[in-house]
Design brief:
The chain contains seven helices and six strands. The protein has helices at about 5-15, 25-35, 45-55, 100-110, 135-145, 165, 190-200; strands spanning about 70-80, 95-100, 110-120, 120-130, 155-160, 175. A four-stranded mixed sheet has the order 1-3-4-6, with helices on both faces. Strands 2-5 form a two-stranded antiparallel sheet.
Length: about 210
């Protein structure tokens, strides 16, 4: 009987960490990568890919920035073509559970935000912008949610940024654009697709 990925995962989980008695094929490895890259509950591999594009070492810990020794933040989004409710990639992103105190810390660090768009786990584009370039936009959202400053157990659950806000910034850089982007344009909004091609004319920064 042919070995399935499920059997391999079960064996490993049950303690057979060397997978003795099993032969791992290229197909199994690709199947595992596909599952991991498209996992809705984990962006680990997508973030690893973005770090590779940025040329930074990824942080193995969950806490802190995504760069091991740098103030880099990755904001990946994935379009899963098997999900009928999936929304097209539009260049947006967010920070969760934000407070004035956290925002002030971010302002001091001024992390580099990397915005990535994936289709079925394949990177389509990656943009780069500084946190402080979006500072006024973020502050408006915080002031609206927490007008009197920070309150215990109160947060701005989702502090967002959109493509429209990004387009108003002058320091946006295109780090990566997939050579097959034309094949995937149906999964990207028209506005974002046009913007990416506009940035492409200025060259991809490394």
């Amino acid at each position: 009987m042919e070995t399935t990925l499920g059997q391999i995962i079960s064996e490993y989980s049950m303690g057979n960490t060397q997978l003795e008695g099993f032969e791992i094929s290229k197909e199994h490895f690709i199947e595992l990568l596909s599952k991991y890259f498209n996992d809705k509950n984990s962006s680990t591999l997508r973030e690893e890919m973005m770090c590779y594009i940025s040329g930074i070492e990824s942080n193995p810990n969950k806490l802190g920035y995504d760069g091991k020794t740098t103030n880099d933040e990755n904001k990946p989004k994935n379009f899963d073509t098997s999900n009928p409710k999936a929304k097209k990639l539009n260049g947006s992103g967010n920070y969760s559970d934000m407070t004035h105190k956290r925002d002030e810390k971010f302002k001091l660090d001024n992390p580099t935000i990397h915005i990535g768009g994936f289709v079925n786990g394949r990177l389509m584009y990656q943009l780069k912008i500084q946190y402080n370039s979006l500072g006024e936009h973020f502050k408006k959202q915080l002031n609206k949610r927490l007008p009197d400053g920070d309150v215990k157990n109160n947060y701005l659950r989702s502090m967002t940024f959109s493509l429209k806000v990004i387009q108003e910034c002058k320091d946006v850089e295109l780090e990566f654009l997939n050579k097959d982007i034309e094949k995937y344009r149906d999964f990207i909004t028209k506005t974002l697709y046009t913007y990416l091609n506009k940035l492409k004319k200025y060259g991809i920064k490394k």
